[in-house]
Prior knowledge:
Bound molecules: 1,3-dihydroxyacetonephosphate
Number of domains: 1
CATH superfamily: Aldolase class I
Order of helices and strands: EHEHEHEHHEHHHEHHEHEH
Strand order of the largest sheet: 1-2-3-4-5-6-7-8
CATH architecture: Alpha-Beta Barrel
Largest sheet: 8 strands, parallel, barrel
Mean pLDDT: 96
CATH class: Alpha Beta
Strand content: 15-25%
Helix content: 40-55%
Radius of gyration: 17 Å
Low-confidence stretches: none
CATH topology: TIM Barrel
Number of strands: 8
Amino acid sequence: MRCVVANWKMNLSSVEAKAFCEDLLGRCAPESGTEVGIAPPFTLLSLVSGLVSAKGIKVFGQNAHAEAKGAFTGEVSMPQLRDAGCFGVLLGHSERRQFFGETDAALAKKVKAAWQWDLLPLLCIGESLAQRDAGQTLAVLGQQLSILAETGPGPLWVAYEPVWAIGTGRRAEAPQVREAHAFIRAELNRHLGAAASAIVPILYGGSVTPESFPELLGIPEVAGGLVGGASLDPKKFAELVKQAG
Ligand code: 13P
């Protein structure tokens, strides 16, 4: 199974989102065997879900709180994501870790909360440039995945997103992606067991474009892409969906 997920981050108005969805649906119908997702900002979830869910495109939140409700001003809960039509939720995106202090301990709670509310967690992991330069890439990925020892197995997608490749136009080279994805698979096998690991797709993210995606899809253990910048253009995103099919 291949997966292509658009992470819109903090972009698009309701008018732009509606135009994007109509344009995308006019360009592509996801092939069976390809999962297509869109992660809009919270304010656009219901709108986007209403436009694309019936066409088989899955909607993801970009984050959620682990508690179901309560006095957490500015936060959104897992059941609220469900209510807005979400299928899943991005967890641990590097921008959340970097700018909002998201910790592995909090992420373990969020993964369990997502399962409790029948949402698919898309767990994002990746090393910074300083960590790669210090030879710590695999240790960092291992640490970020160690939350699975606590959560145990469950429905899960993982995205490998080297921080230095996000929004920089500098995607990771094929050998770097191959090494990271093979390591992630080995860690998933170790934490979840081979059978539970086998159904977890590992996506690559970081400056994915229609120019770079075919080569990435040819790398073992790359099951698709988590796409930022190129996912804001329906033409480019539709092209990525076609390439994955
Ligand atoms: P870019 O595709 O803009 O590099 O962003 C990647 C990303 O962060 C997706 O979650």
